[in-house]
Amino acid sequence: MSSPSDGGASRDGYGKALLRLAEDQRVVVLEADLGKSTKSCYFREQFPERTFSLGIAEQNMMLVAAGMSSSGKIPFASTFAIFTERAFEQVRNGIARPGLKVHICGSHGGIHTGSDGSSAQSIEDIAVYRSIPKMTVIHPCDDLSAEELTVQLLDLQGPSYTRTARNKVPRIYDHESKLELKIGVGSVLEEGEDVAIIACGVMVERAREAASSLSEEGILCTVVDMHTIKPLDEGLLARLAEHCGCFVSVEDHSIIGGLGGALAEWLSTNNPIPLEMVGVRDRFGESGETTELMEKIGLTREAICEAARKSVNRKNAA
Amino acid sequence: MGDRIAELEEMARLCRIDIVEMTNAAGAGHPGGSLSAIDSIVALYGTSLRFDTTNPSWEDRDRFIMSKGHASPAVYAILHQMGVLEEHDLLGFRTLGSVCQGHVDMNWTDGVDFSAGSLGMGLSFGLGCALSAKMDSSERRIWVMIGDGEAQEGQVWEAAMAASFHNASKLRVIVDRNGIQNDDFMEVQMEIGDIGAKFASFGWSVREVDGHDMSALVEVFQWANADDSGPIAIIANTTKGKGVSFMEDNPSFHGKAPNNEELAQALEELS
Predict the structure, then answer these.
(1) Can you tell me the ipTM of this complex?
(2) Going from the N-terminus, what domains does chain B have, and what CATH number goes with each?
(3) Where in chain A are the domains?
(4) Is 3.40.50.920 the CATH classification of the domain at A184-317?
(5) What are phi and psi of A135, to 5 degrees?
(6) Chain A residue numbers touching B119 (CB-CB < 8 A)
(7) Mutate to test the interface with B, among A58, A70, A71, A157 (most CBs of B within 10 A)
(8) pLDDT, tens digit, for every residue of A216-238?
């Protein structure tokens, strides 16, 4: 088992958060033979009596967590994002429907996962969990925000799904700025009046790079880390729609039903300004090194820049 | 003891009347699997389940997890006979706003410990309850009822494996072995063979019982309550629709309510 690293990968933040939560004796951790990968292994090492291996049997794990929640425990269950989806109906009917406080973490989300190939690259998890009533859906961008948001789950009055990523990325937050994060409140990283780039997960860093490039062209961008996809920070969207007049969504996830889908739903019924989407365009991934894969799928700084220019042009043409 | 058994048999008769009346009133529901399960449920609630009718949410109560959630009329009937539900609650079965939802739901009904309706999930839920009880050093036992058709769901066996591995010694499962599932007899749809042997192969203690013999049921539940060496499976051999002649062993009454004429005949047979 590897030790907590200096950071970057959001899955490390999840693992460290479990250690911070351990003081609460109600907290229990459930694994499906991927604790070394999701980083629940940090908790297992120190609190084996409150860690349960359920084997490679995700459907059972979800309902064991539900039963524990009904008995007063606060379960944190993790596996790969894609394998949580195997137990989708268990999450829907066994956890969310009765409103049980079970916190699910799906690690290795998105194309960013890399060479394991398409079977491991969940590109629809956010969409499917967002469709379940009562579910909070979170996708942090770095290890520090993942840690902070996971710690806040302890007081959440319902079930949640958190997607973490396998690979390290540059930190967006530091030990001070992470303290300002709050579940359900979008985090504005940069402010500009021409376009709002609203991103989540590993694409937040790409969004910042794109904003930097665009500023050299005279396009001033607001950049938001929308770490909570549900409930969506509608107040922030309303302000940004007024202020910027056009949006770009950016996610390592299908453009169908994820962050982009959520923004499209909100905009079309509240303030129909232009929206351009950067994400996975209705296709599966494949094996490859992360950077080359992200380029092939179109999850790049340049793709964001192009989407921003297009969104601004549409706004100006209106 | 003989008087007690007679009392339980009488309670089971009243529950059967509740089952046919509430499904008739709703014009829907699942009488067949409710009638097959009811004797086990009465024997359990009547003798072995630690349960406070004045405080159904007592934290340290034994849990009864009805995993075959379509047999909700059986649960509502026992809760009625125990004084937790009123007759008008039962007659509202399946109607808008009723505490008696189509499938048992812990958020709608006092005394219901699990929100069922999708088969195969209850044993896992019970395992979570049993592991929690163990962590809490509690005496509470967890009783789960599944159907034999339900045992076709792979998740049941994931739970059976995990219960043994984690030595969930307070976990009990009752299998309502009535041989019929939604579409037809199990031997037509998917006969799964010796369910007891399957649980035994996962390390469970197993007993078979005549699921309509009240004395035998009470005896086996008392045995299960006295043994804390590991998880226990009780295979209750039953007849679907038991107690109403035209429903007995009849697949068409799995998910069909009696009409008024059928209700009258059922009530006559149960009088």
Answers:
(1) 0.97
(2) 2-270 (3.40.50.970)
(3) 10-163, 184-317
(4) yes
(5) -85, 135
(6) none
(7) A71
(8) 999 999 999 999 999 999 999 99
